[in-house]
Design a protein that fits this description.
It is a single chain. By secondary structure, the protein is an alpha+beta fold. It is built from 3 helices and 7 strands. It has a 5-stranded antiparallel β-sheet. The chain has a two-stranded parallel sheet with strand order 1-7. The longest helix is centred in the C-terminal third of the chain and has 33 residues.
């Protein structure tokens, strides 16, 4: 089990509860958003996801934050013209200068009273930066609910996997280069 570490006494920053930066971005999909199949283009949804996640990261960190990676973007159902899309985002985990933001994408017909259904989800990593674009320290996130605590722990697992994958790829490339198998 991964422990919850939510305060960082060495940098002196007070933690912020998950709810402080949580946000929802809503947008109605139009014909301009469609792909060749007549449904909303995945790139349009990805931009909304990045916009909402960026707003959350900036709110939590108290300043500029840039997208470092998108771990996973799952498209569960197609989105159609006329759908009202809600992109819900929150900080799941924080490191020294990085934050994982979890995003859920929901869609509902603009002219119906049926409940919104989840059509996508994503995990993005943001890095807080200063005016020169250098990393800056972020406050720890304080999970408030059992769901927040689960998301925090799952984010730590994803981070461990990201770092292990990056290290394994770097080691493979170094080994292949040392053996003269890959050109520089």
């Amino acid at each position: 089990m991964t422990d919850l570490v939510t305060n960082s006494p060495e940098d002196g920053l007070a933690g912020k509860p998950t709810s402080v930066s949580r946000t929802t971005l809503s947008h109605i999909m139009t014909a301009a958003d469609t792909n060749l199949l007549g449904t909303v283009h995945g790139g349009v949804i990805m931009k909304l996801v990045d916009d909402a996640a960026g707003a959350v990261a900036g709110r939590h960190s108290g300043g500029p934050a840039v997208t470092a990676s998108m771990d996973e973007m799952a498209f569960l159902e197609p989105v159609r013209v006329g759908d009202l899309v809600h992109v819900k985002a929150q900080v799941n985990w924080t490191g020294r200068s990085s934050m994982e933001v979890g995003v859920r994408v929901l869609a509902e017909r603009w002219n119906e009273s049926s409940p919104a259904q989840q059509v996508g989800s994503a995990y993005l990593v943001f890095a807080a930066v200063d005016e020169q674009g250098k990393p800056r320290t972020v406050p720890p996130v304080i999970p408030e609910t059992e769901r927040d605590k689960r998301r925090y722990q799952e984010a730590q697992i994803r981070r461990t996997h990201r770092l292990a994958r990056r290290r394994a790829i770097r080691e493979l490339r170094e080994r292949r280069a040392a053996e003269g198998l890959d050109e520089a």
